[in-house]
Specification:
- With about 180 residues, the chain is an alpha/beta fold.
- Helix 2 packs parallel to helix 5.
- The model has no long low-confidence stretch (mean pLDDT about 85).
């Protein structure tokens, strides 16, 4: 089923139930979703970039399990924040929330998220991958309770870590991004 949007020059094809069933019968060792997720163009860019970032994290932190949080049951910890992805250290079980921020949310929404992550018993740290430094500054303003400006990435503030893709390799070399990464050494 074609889904059109944007400038009109892009076409995205989405499988229907019959297509998923055919794939499941062909690739017996692979689990396929039973439901058909709705493709929304506004979140497609986010989801594609998230997949790219997660692939990069898997290369950088091979002793950690890194999964898209949409694939994890959310009933287990219903009061916990819902990150974009979860990184779990396979040796110690320590969990990090991974958030991909491409556009700014309201100050109120960031305040709520920061509070939830501060109170979280599941996530020992939060890794924000931001599109622009100004997004990290906006979130940091809510963390600090006062205006944050002129930070450089990567940046750490308590259990909150900020980076962007171009800094992931630099961060890995400095071995400074996450507790998950530290505990694998």
């Amino acid at each position: 089923m074609p889904v059109r949007g944007g400038t009109g020059s892009e076409t995205i094809y989405q499988l229907k139930k019959k297509g998923i069933k055919t794939l499941a019968q062909t690739f017996l060792d692979t689990d396929f979703r039973k439901d058909i997720p709705t493709v929304t163009l506004s979140s497609l860019n986010h989801d594609l970039l998230l997949t790219e970032f997660l692939d990069e994290f898997k290369k950088l932190y091979p002793k950690n399990e890194i999964v898209n949080a949409r694939l994890v049951s959310s009933q287990e910890h219903s009061n916990e924040p819902k990150p974009d992805a979860i990184m779990t250290n396979l040796e110690g079980g320590f969990q990090s929330a991974i958030e991909l921020e491409l556009t700014a949310k309201s100050d109120r929404r960031y305040r709520e998220l920061v509070l939830k992550y501060r109170l979280s018993r599941v996530f020992g740290e939060v890794i924000y991958i931001v599109a622009r430094t100004s997004l990290a500054e906006k979130i940091l303003t809510q963390i600090r309770g006062r205006r944050a400006s002129q930070i450089s990435l990567p940046h750490k503030e308590g259990k909150f870590h900020f980076t962007d893709l171009k800094n992931l390799h630099k961060t890995k070399q400095e071995k400074d991004l996450t507790t998950c990464a530290k505990s694998q050494r």
